[in-house]
Amino acid sequence: MSKNETLKIARQVLAMEADALGQMSRGLGDEFCQAATLLLAVKGRVIVSGMGKSGHIARKIAATFASTGTPAQYVHPGEASHGDLGMITNADAVLLISNSGETKELADIIAHAGRFGVKIIGITRKRESTLARQSAIVLLLPDAPEACAIGMAPTTSTTCTLALGDALAVSLMKMRGFERENFLSFHPGGKLGAELISVGALMHKGDNLPIVDRRADMGTTLLEMTSKGFGAVAVVENGLLVGAITDGDLRRNMEGLMDKVAGDVATQTPLTIGVDALAGEALALMNAQAVTALFVVGAGGKLEGLLQIHDCLRAGIA
């Protein structure tokens, strides 16, 4: 098969799936809002289940819910029939996925939910299916063809189901007021967590911070720079940052250096960043300005700390 033929097939698949997503978006209505409201009110967890390819999508939806503030768990329908039904309580809600709505492996979960009054949200393409009839709320997938060459392999349907799960998760995030700080608490490891660390969490502060008064003599200033080992010193007045001295400032003021005071040598408008800024923002600023450290300020220009580029790199921000 030629390259042009391969690209033609790929574009057809993407076009078919994009068209189905558009159909689903235009078809959203009250039932989606009802489903989001039901999930928001759940006291326990959202139990997500499906069989086969729907099961893989169910796992991802459960993981997205859990990482964005909605407690959730995937339960395999086969394992549910052999004891894992005990994971589903009357404090939970169940989100079941079946394109046909007739997946027999879901029968025991449906029966268990009915026995204990657990609400079911069904995601299916068939309004008259068994799953739809047993669900408190039905979220319909578009009646669109699968994008595979023989029209049978789950492609369009799984893409739509995944997108619908994302739509629910993001809606719930907004409804809960879930912010970046909450996301960080669920993602302390890896690049996502690292990018959401605040400057205040990484900066040097207190006795480790190199500080001199604006009127300090240069002997005192040099001793402070050397002892703290940052290659820079903050120049303050009444607790406010009024300048900074780096090795470059010293070189530019070598003539008569020891006859001057810190305020004479300091750069009056040093680069700074807020204590609540993201460490990723600080790293971007340091890279853009070709510097290796930033002084950290709070309200009114109060000196709070110092952040070095190595602090960001050690935290996994790159």
What's the quick description here?
By secondary structure, this protein is an alpha/beta fold. 46% of the residues lie in helices and 17% in strands. It folds into 2 domains: 3-178, Glucose-6-phosphate isomerase like protein, domain 1 (Rossmann fold), CATH 3.40.50.10490; 199-314, CBS-domain, CATH 3.10.580.
Q: What is the number of beta strands? A: 11
Which stretches of 5+ consecutive residues score pLDDT under 50?
none
CATH architecture of the largest domain, by name, is 3-Layer(aba) Sandwich
Main β sheet profile: 5 strands, parallel
Look at the structure and give the mean pLDDT.
91
The best one-word shape is: elongated
Report, as a whole number of angstroms, the end-to-end distance. 41 Å
Q: Which oligomeric state applies? A: single chain
Q: What is the name of the CATH topology of the largest domain?
A: Rossmann fold
Beta-sheet strand percentage? 15-25%
Helix/strand-derived category reads alpha/beta
CATH superfamily of the largest domain: Glucose-6-phosphate isomerase like protein, domain 1
Spatial strand sequence of the major β-sheet: 2-1-3-4-5
State Rg.
29 Å
Portion of residues within helices: 40-55%
Compressed to H and E, one letter per element, the order equals: HHEHEHEHEHEHHHHEHEEHHEHEEH
Work out the count of structural domains: 2
User: What's the helix count?
Assistant: 15
What is the highest CATH level, the class of the largest domain?
A: Alpha Beta
